[in-house]
Design goal:
- The protein is of the alpha+beta class and about 220 residues long.
- The chain has three helices and 13 strands.
- It has a four-stranded antiparallel sheet with strand order 3-4-5-6, with no helix packed on it. Strands 7-8-9-10 form a four-stranded antiparallel sheet, with no helix packed on it.
- Helix 2 runs antiparallel to helix 3.
- The protein is elongated, with a radius of gyration of 22 Å.
C-alpha cells in the first residue's frame, strides 16, 4: 500500500522534530536565526531584506538537515549491530548478541574480566568475559543521545572512560555502572584515551585538545 500524499508531510515534520531534539547544531542554528530576526528589528529592514534573510535561514536549516541525514546513513556500516565473542585459542564463536545497537567502540577491564561496548544510543554496556553466553553486568546511559564516535573505551583505576562525537567525556564507576561525571571538552569527537605512567588518563579530541584526567572527579 502506497503512503498517502499527506503522510510525506507527517514524515518530514517527524524528521524535523527528531533533528531539533537530537542534533545540537540544529538547535544552535535555530537559536541564531531567532537572534537574527530579533536584532533585525533595530535596523528598519523592508520586505525585500526579510525575504532574503528568510531564504538564507531556510537554506542553512535545510543543509543541516541534509548533513544530519547523511551522517546517520553513512555512519551505520552494519544494520544488525551484533557483539561477538570468540575463543582466543580456537577462534570458535562463543556467542553473538544484538541486544543493543553496539558500536565498534570497545574496551576491556584491567583484570580482563569485563568487556565494554558503547552503543549507538549513547549507552555503555559491561559484559562478562569467559562466559559461554552473553552475560551483561550493567548498562549506563551516558547521556550522549545518538552517537557514532569510534573512540575506544578505557578503564583505569576502577573508572571507565568513554567519549562522544560532540567532545563530551564521561566517567563511569567500573564496579556499579554508575555515571560519575560528564565534561564537554570541545566540539569535535573524542579521539582516544591513554593511561600515563603516573596513573593519569589523557583524552584527546580531533580538534587538537588534550586533557589530563585524574581521580573520579572531572
Amino acid at each position: 500500500m502506497k503512503p498517502r500524499f499527506v503522510d510525506s508531510f507527517l514524515y518530514a515534520a517527524q524528521g524535523i522534530r527528531t533533528a531539533v531534539r537530537e542534533e545540537r547544531n540544529m538547535r544552535f542554528h535555530l537559536c541564531a536565526a531567532f537572534y537574527v530576526y530579533l536584532f533585525s528589528l533595530f535596523y528598519g529592514f523592508g520586505k525585500t531584506e526579510y525575504i532574503l534573510i528568510t531564504l538564507m535561514v531556510c537554506g542553512v536549516l535545510a543543509l543541516e538537515l541534509v548533513n544530519s541525514s547523511l551522517e546517520r546513513t553513512v555512519e551505520r556500516p552494519a544494520p544488525d549491530r551484533y557483539m561477538t565473542a570468540l575463543d582466543l585459542k580456537t577462534g570458535r564463536q562463543l556467542w553473538r548478541a544484538n541486544t543493543h545497537k553496539f558500536r565498534e567502540a570497545l574496551g576491556g577491564s584491567e583484570d580482563g574480566g569485563t568487556a565494554y561496548a558503547k552503543t549507538m544510543d549513547g549507552e555503555l554496556v559491561a559484559v562478562e568475559t569467559g562466559k559461554p553466553e552473553y552475560t551483561e553486568k550493567w548498562l549506563c546511559d551516558l547521556g550522549f543521545g545518538y552517537d557514532h564516535a569510534p573512540c575506544p573505551v578505557l578503564e583505569a583505576d576502577g573508572v571507565v572512560y568513554a567519549g562522544s562525537r560532540n567532545g563530551v567525556i564521561a566517567a563511569i564507576d567500573a564496579a556499579t555502572g554508575k555515571l560519575l561525571w560528564r565534561y564537554r571538552g570541545g566540539d569535535s569527537a573524542v579521539n582516544d584515551f591513554t593511561k600515563g605512567p603516573d596513573g593519569s588518563v589523557y583524552a584527546t579530541l580531533i580538534e587538537g585538545r588534550i586533557y589530563r584526567i585524574s581521580g573520579k572527579t572531572p
